[in-house]
Design brief:
This protein is α+β, with helices and mostly antiparallel strands and 377 residues long. It contains ten helices and ten strands. The strands form three sheets. The chain has a four-stranded antiparallel beta sheet, sandwiched between helices. A hairpin with a 2-residue loop joins strand 3 and strand 4. The longest helix has 56 residues.
Length: 377
């Protein structure tokens, strides 16, 4: 799919159809590999020159906002598809691929009545996109919350012995619990195991001799049991810490283990449900935002063309997708087809230039016709 398009308008001197034929002929002759399409814009409500100037101040800002939201949703889709391991789906607007929607654009009269003032249309587009962005933030936060909880559990299960959950490492027979005796779990640095075995019986009184048993070892630590009288457990913890050994709080409970297992399974299920739901929402919402963006581009090309060529509206709007190597040729063709004497921006002095400064389309170059770029990727 082509990802970079130019939206341009050329001033019409005689008729749109003759200019369109000349454009197609020149492109076919000098840059045959450049697709060119009509960008069909209805007769929108022009309003006053003052209202157009005021609108021009907001056009680039509004375009950046709408385009930015579409990019956010697209990035979210890419991330969710990557995490889910699903193949990337073509992004669409009501089932129509986005590139086809752009190149065969049709104005939605029901959604954006052409008799509405241009500012009202722009405000309506911005409002709808802002609502979608707010909804995106809420849905992503909910999904990330569940994901964060699962990541925390996974860190506990796969982290070092100093922090990980010990319930799946300790068996009931490893623990002695009676009225007077208790089994503690000590996390010993891997290279201090000899020190532990040499001194654990003397860290406090009433430690059961030869009661320490190694249960598990990772890259940093080893997990040992030790059995002693309950009444000296606090002293043992304090003295162990001074020697560089960590006594972990642990209570073996089959019920607690089962509860944790069920909670984990529920979180995994919730994450999958939210991920699937968020992905489907993103597919739909991207289509809505993209449609809004294309309608905004139609308003933008219309407003800039009026400002550039004057009234009544007489311009040909089209979409091109030249290869990088063909861009200079296509620019040259468009310039030849433009009647630069009709272009206010091209021949403007300081006053006219100031009026058009906000309508330059954001491109670094200026041309004797209206032009701006749409990036779909």
């Amino acid at each position: 799919m082509t990802s970079r398009y130019w939206v341009v308008s050329l001033p019409v001197k005689d008729s749109s159809s003759s200019l369109w034929n000349r454009l197609q002929e020149q492109i076919s002759k000098h840059s045959f590999d450049t697709p060119v399409y009509r960008f069909n814009i209805p007769n929108l409500r022009v309003g006053t020159l003052d209202s157009l100037l005021a609108l021009g101040d907001d056009l680039l800002k509004s375009n950046s906002f709408v385009e930015g939201v579409s990019q956010k949703i697209r990035r979210q889709i890419e991330e969710l598809e990557r995490i889910s391991g699903v193949e990337s789906n073509a992004l669409t607007v009501d089932g129509v691929p986005v590139d086809s929607y752009l190149t065969r654009f049709v104005w939605d009269e029901a959604k954006y009545p052409t008799m509405s003032p241009l500012k009202e249309v722009v405000d309506n587009i911005q409002s709808q996109v802002a609502k979608i962005e707010d909804d995106l933030k809420v849905r992503v936060a909910e999904y990330n919350n569940i994901r964060g909880q699962l990541n925390a559990i996974n860190r506990k299960q796969s982290g070092s012995l100093a922090v990980r959950d010990l319930s799946n490492l300790v068996k009931p027979e490893d623990v002695v619990t009676s009225e007077h005796l208790v089994t503690l779990l000590a996390v010993v640095p891997k290279y201090s195991q000899k020190d532990w075995l040499a001194c654990y019986e003397t860290l406090t009184d009433f430690v059961v001799p030869r009661s320490s048993k190694k249960l598990f070892e990772d890259n940093e630590y080893a997990l040992y049991t030790v059995t002693l009288f309950t009444r000296v457990a606090d002293n043992f913890r304090t003295n162990s810490r001074e020697k560089g050994f960590q006594v972990r709080d642990f209570e073996h409970s089959v019920e607690a283990q089962e509860t944790r297992k069920q909670e984990l399974e529920k979180l995994v299920q919730d994450q999958e449900t939210l991920r699937s739901s968020l992905l489907q929402w993103c597919y739909t919402s991207y289509g809505e935002v993209f449609s809004s963006w294309m309608h905004f581009c139609a308003v933008r090309i219309f407003a800039e063309s009026i400002m550039r060529y004057g009234l009544p509206p007489a311009f040909l709007a089209c979409v091109l997708s030249p290869a990088v190597k063909s861009e200079k040729k296509v620019r040259s063709i468009l310039e030849r087809l433009s009647d630069s004497t009709n272009s206010l921006y091209w021949k403007s002095e300081e006053d006219a230039g100031a009026a058009m400064a906000g309508l330059a389309g954001g491109d670094s170059e200026t041309h004797p016709y209206v032009s701006f770029t749409i990036n779909l990727a």
